[in-house]
Amino acid sequence: MKNIGRVFIFLVILLIGCQNQDAADVTWGSKHSISIEDISRVDLQMGDGTVITLPQEEMVRYLDAISNGVFDKGQLDIRPADYAAELTLKNGNKRGLSVWISDGSNLFMDHEDPGHYILDEKAKATMMEIVNEKEER
């Protein structure tokens, strides 16, 4: 009877341990390890075709905002993106993003990843502030 109890306790501990590993949030920043020093340019292409290039201080804020996006493997069935972002890296590579932050949306998709990323309210507010400032100019 003691052996059955020990096996049961071992199985419970094993199952709990496996669940904790799966629950860890993967963020865009932890998945891609891209720092601001790696980026030479960030261009935002708005829905009307206008392209906005972010200055250095806004690139830092933008990268900080997307770095905290939490990965979700689900498929999107959503309206067209509010805008597209292109991150040009100093090594010449480019990363494309599609972003949905209006009308209650708070997510973006990296064109090289399956799934999408969910933004917290602070990151969404930062991104909206950057876009709104640029559109007003």
Automatic annotation (TrEMBL):
Keywords: Signal. Residues 1-23 form the signal peptide. The keyword rRNA-binding does not apply. Pfam families: YhfM. Residues 56-135 form the YhfM-like domain. This is YhfM-like domain-containing protein.
